[in-house]
Design goal:
Blueprint: H1 5-28, H2 34-43, E1 48-51, H3 55-69, E2 74-76, H4 79-82, E3 95-99, H5 109-117, E4 122-126, H6 132-136, E5 139-142, H7 158-178, H8 182-187, H9 192-197, H10 201-204, E6 213-215, H11 220-230, E7 234-239, E8 242-248, H12 249-254, H13 264-267, E9 269-270, E10 274-275, H14 281-291, E11 295-299, E12 305-310, H15 311-316
Parallel strand pairs: 1-2, 1-3, 3-4, 4-5, 6-7, 10-11
Antiparallel strand pairs: 7-8, 8-9, 11-12
Length: 320
Amino acid sequence: MDTPADPIVATAARVLRIEGAAVTALADDLPADFAPAVGAILETRGRVILSGIGKSGHIARKIASTFASTGTPAAYVHPAEASHGDLGMVTPGDLAILISHSGETSELRDILAHVARFSIPCIGISGNADSTLMQAADFRLALPKVEEACINGLAPTTSTTLTLALGDALAVAVMELRGFRAEEFRTFHPGGRLGAKLAKVSQLMHGEGELPLVADETPMPETLIVMSEKSFGVAGVTEGGRLVGVITDGDLRRNIDRLAEARAGEVATRNPRVVGPDLLAVEALAMMSENKITALFVIDEENRPVGLIHLHDCLRAGLA
């Protein structure tokens, strides 16, 4: 069926504008309990437990994942399963975030009673400030009355977007106050391109036992043997244990007529480009790409070679 594009685009634009305006309005008028709620999460010694049913349950799962991946232990507990034994997953020392747009979701009744019984702090997120959930919660994050983006005004659209955005705001505020760093973020994201982009050179480099190193006075025939054995296409030239130069295939071509008699130090490119072990591997890759080279020696504070990172290492890690 051929459908004119204009009405489709107009619908999409209307939905995005309605939801975007609602998020902006929430940003301009955050619930008064937002900051105290963040403080309560920071003080929690157990886990942040999220629960909700239906669309609210999907949002709760995502918020739990965001907390967990940014340094705050969190888990989603299905409210119906909680009523059949999973309440044991919610313990003193935890904090609960319960989500219900109406605030009257019957499935939350048992978990709400459980957190009250064991004095577990509770954050309620609802579009109804006067609801049972919000009256029982210790911290009340009431959503503003908004227009659902659905043409009938019925399908949860704007309201779920607001809930998700508010959950993100909670998680990011907590993350920043914890001082959560990129290195820690990678710990929870070891797979895929995100994990690779946060990898350090030290995590991808070849160690000292694999390095193609020769002394400054090493004859070039011996140097060629080392380069061939190590298979990186380069050799590092050292003086007193410190890296002073690098020999590449380009250096070999430029000195082809005297390789039989020359010493490594005479052929090497002096003051080569190097990196430290704590540099992000993606930055090392950018340096290699910019300078059209395939490998970088990794040095310590005293300019001693401690590793080598090759273009192929970066490619295998998924950096490009």
